[in-house]
Amino acid sequence: MNLDTQQPAAPTVGVLETAALLRELTAGLIAVTDFDEALTALVRISRDAVAGVSWCGFTVLRAGQPAGGAASDHRLAGLDDPRHGPDSPAMDAIRRREMVLSENLGRERRWPDWTSRATDLGVHGVISAPLDVDDHVIGAINLYAGAADVLTTLHQLTAMLLAEHAGLLLAAVRGRARQLEVAGEWDAALLHDGVVGQAVGVIMTQRGCPAEEALDVLRSAASSLEIPLREVAQRLVRTVSRARES
Q: Positive or negative CA dihedral for 37, 38, 39, 45?
């Protein structure tokens, strides 16, 4: 029996490339807390990693309203921004909740204004895949080809996996941002708390550091001693008060 072992090579390479893309995206976004920064990294990494794709963009809706986008090339930013009009492959993908493909924009009739602008910029093929970030943010990731009829089934599969993975990563980015916001509010409340605020003031005076750093010193001490933050603050304030009295 003579089996042709070379046939699966192309799909295998595609799968490996997609896996590498998802790993790179995870590494690039794992510690990011700013949503716009995350989008910029997402479109850049995707453009560089997907063979046959010349540009990548992202379309954003917040609370159902157009909220801009991101583009790997600033010249194409208007193609991704939903504020430039509701008729585009990205908006179709978001509305229909399914991937939208146009292999050759020269034959495309669905979005005449958008297509005219896209082809003037050198775009001749597009895939838009919808994704959900959280209850307030949805969007679509857009893969653009600089030549007609180069986007394949493999590109569609990559776009689908990319959208699913990016949705999870972007949700995590927004989650971390909310945690930082809550932590900031909590820090502000602590700094206005009587004994904690006094302890922070003592550390600031001793170390010549800002309030946030002084609060971190208190937290570190509480963690090391395995006692509540307020108790550490009380001990410090009592120690300083006794020293002053003596």
A: positive
